[in-house]
Amino acid sequence: MKVYKLFLGLSLLSIVLVSCKNNQKEETPSVETNEVTTPQKAQKKILTEEDRKVIASVLAKVMSTPELKSFASAIVTVEATELLSKEDGPYTVLAPTNAAFDAIPKEKMNPFLRPENKANFGKLVKNHIVKGSFTSFDLIQNMKGSGKVELETVGGAKITATREGTDIIITDANGKKAKIGTKDITGGNGIVHAIDVVLNIK
């Protein structure tokens, strides 16, 4: 009896499904058309000279380097993007790593993040940017003789490059030292070196 009911149920279900399909076929008139639809291709944007300049800039290099995301965010916050993307420079960017920013005590970093201290934060960021293009080789070559290279940042701070073994060390006016890690990231308007300490912060 149970088998019979199951068979009857399945039979009724199949009849309903077939009738539905037939109704759909009858209700949908076939329309012949000779029109052929072709998918429209998305138009490629033609890059201007300025677009190419921005894409190749040191700003783009900083933003595309994962270990420099915090510094990239700082550049955007202080509105220094045009300096590093549109100006010819050339510039040497000594970009603190994410770990370097994380190492700053909150009581020292938080005041810079307040809106009223935006100018001071901007100066801090610009004190990691040097006018001129200095690869690691250039820095080492310029150290010959005196053993150091004195540089001035866009923010007006004095920094010094020296060597300790095979490492290039950057020292700020307060005596704080940072080591260059990832180096010679070349952009269209300068060079980027990653450093392990945020400089010029007391």
Summarize the topology:
Layout (H helix, E strand, L loop, with lengths): L1 H26 L21 H7 L2 H6 L5 H9 L3 H5 L5 E6 L1 H5 L3 H4 L8 H9 L2 E3 L4 H8 L5 E4 L5 E7 L2 E6 L4 E3 L5 E3 L2 E6 L7
Parallel strand pairs: 1-8
Antiparallel strand pairs: 1-2, 3-4, 4-5, 5-6, 7-8
Task: Characterise the protein shown here.
- By secondary structure, the chain is α+β, with helices and mostly antiparallel strands.
- It contains nine helices and eight strands.
- It has a four-stranded mixed β-sheet. A four-stranded antiparallel β-sheet has the order 3-4-5-6, with helices on one face.
- A hairpin with a 5-residue loop joins strand 3 and strand 4.
- Helix 4 crosses helix 8.
- The N terminus is likely disordered.
Quickly count the helices.
Answer: 9
Report the order of strands and helices.
HHHHHEHHHEHEEEEEE
Instruction: State the helicity in percent bands.
Output: 25-40%
**The CATH homology group name:** FAS1 domain
The largest β sheet comes out as: 4 strands, mixed
Mean of all residue-level pLDDT scores:
83
Q: What is the CATH third-level topology name?
A: FAS1 domain
Radius of gyration: 32 Å
Our count of domains comes out at 1
Principal-axis shape: globular
- Ends apart, CA distance between termini: 90 Å
Percent of residues in β-strands = 15-25%
CATH-level-2 architecture: Roll
Quaternary state reads single chain
Q: Regions with pLDDT < 50 over 5+ consecutive residues?
A: 1-31
* Class computed from helices, strands and strand pairing: alpha+beta
Signal peptide: 1-20
GO cellular component, one term: extracellular space
Protein name: Fasciclin domain-containing protein
Keywords: Signal
